[in-house]
């Protein structure tokens, strides 16, 4: 990955700034890329959505940012700056001291992420005891406060429950409490509401959003649910086959998607009033890692593909028309898109 | 982005009523069956008798009465006297205490050796696990008594070296239990979650993984104590375990065996007591194992 095509934006205000991150693994001498020069930035107090189908590299991006990359995967290039320090060149022990303190993560399946052998109170107290050396009693009292913060009724009683005694939504709240125990600056939420039913999903989202505002948290919200993104994210990056294909302010992105893939995702959201019609869908599947084409990776599934333009050479991520200038003056991050035909296409969005 | 936040609703999600004493969940789970509780109570009684009994006995364990040797049970000596005229009841009490301590020493050694190695080997596949697996398999192939005999032969007699040797041969049991739990648990999401809050590998192993291995290890401990007690009695019977002045059920059985043509009665008390202790420990183990398998739910 020698091409440095993505310029990092707003580095000085950035909490987390991922630049040109490339990750992959070695399979019998051959290098199989999983992430290809991915760049994104999360600023303090900002909720950034990372959207894409399964296998597009969302989770790998977030795990790398936490320094939790699973074994066969390796970082091939790029940098992950967290508050100005590159996590990739830091001592792993220092990164460990950041985890849970400055940056935390919540996962999809909360029940499985809680240890069945300990009460939830113990588990919320754990980061406090590991990182701030609180006594058992102090940490226990703080755990009850945290349970109240995540709106769990009868927090004191609940603290002595075991995970299997709680519902899925409760477990997710407990996970949030654990993640927030040491007042981090950044929260990475990897599909935190996917495993919950719709009504509980709403409650958990509201809770997250309330806490995000109160604590001025930077949040990287990973999901495949565009409805959720529209509701809570300030900015959104769309990933496809290991690349970011479009990025910009959420409203702009929904109102006027520039990439055919984003458009496809938006038109596959079921909407009220469309009764009887079919949901939009994108034909085909995401190409597997290692089988990505040279040109546009979405070409094989795109309705607007043009032979000779879309399938030759690497497609760069470029600012869209007009947005670059306004971005320069306002300091906002411009909307950027990875499509050679972006200027010609006029894709329908939602209001 | 104008979602308004509603005030927190009382209730949230439906919850089950909490059991009050959540702290001792593992213990309550293990003791959920009545039979197990009865066996445990009997064992506690046995331990009390073994440790308090010798203090109450009017005779010392080395108080000989050579004129009154090999007496049958009487008002003065409830279980009679042995070949040196010592009170058999007093000896049985001392012997029981030694048996229990010896069992504890052997199993303690086994737990200390086997568990950490097993946790580490199960958590992280690699050269360490390959080496410990080989060691564990080799130890399993050795008959415990033969290794203990070899150790005592090399380092001199006595209960302590003999029990340490027995502990070494028992350690693969704990290694295997710990390794299998660690291998299962290390793939669980909560281990990754623990890493995401900044826990070190040591903390993950000693806290998160170990906590899930406690119940099966406790089961293994109870079974192993029975085995260790038999091993101690056997070694003492063979004359390489407890040496005078310490009294073991094994040395008592030996003494009674030597003089069986003069009096048959003294062979029974030590042998019956060994049988009872081992039976109690293994039925406790059975009960605990059933509780672990059923997760504490009554059938």
What can you tell me about this protein's structure?
The complex is a heterodimer of chains A (about 350) and B (about 300). With about 350 residues, chain A is α/β, with parallel strands linked by helices. Chain A is built from twelve helices and twelve strands. Helix content of chain A is about 30%, strand content about 20%. In chain A, helix 5 crosses helix 7. The two termini of chain A are about 40 Å apart. Chain B has about 300 residues and is mostly helical. Chain B has one domain (about 30-55, about 80-295): MetI-like (MetI-like fold, Orthogonal Bundle). Chain B contains ten helices and no strands. Chain B has helices spanning about 25-30, 35-55, 90-125, 125-140, 145-155, 160-185, 190-195, 200-235, 250-260, 270-295. In chain B, helix 3 (about 90-125) runs parallel beside helix 10 (about 270-295), helix 4 (about 125-140) crosses helix 6 and helix 8 (about 200-235) runs parallel beside helix 9. Residues about 1-20 of chain B have low confidence and may be disordered. At the A-B interface, helix 2, helix 4, helix 7 and helix 8 of A face helix 7 and helix 8 of B.
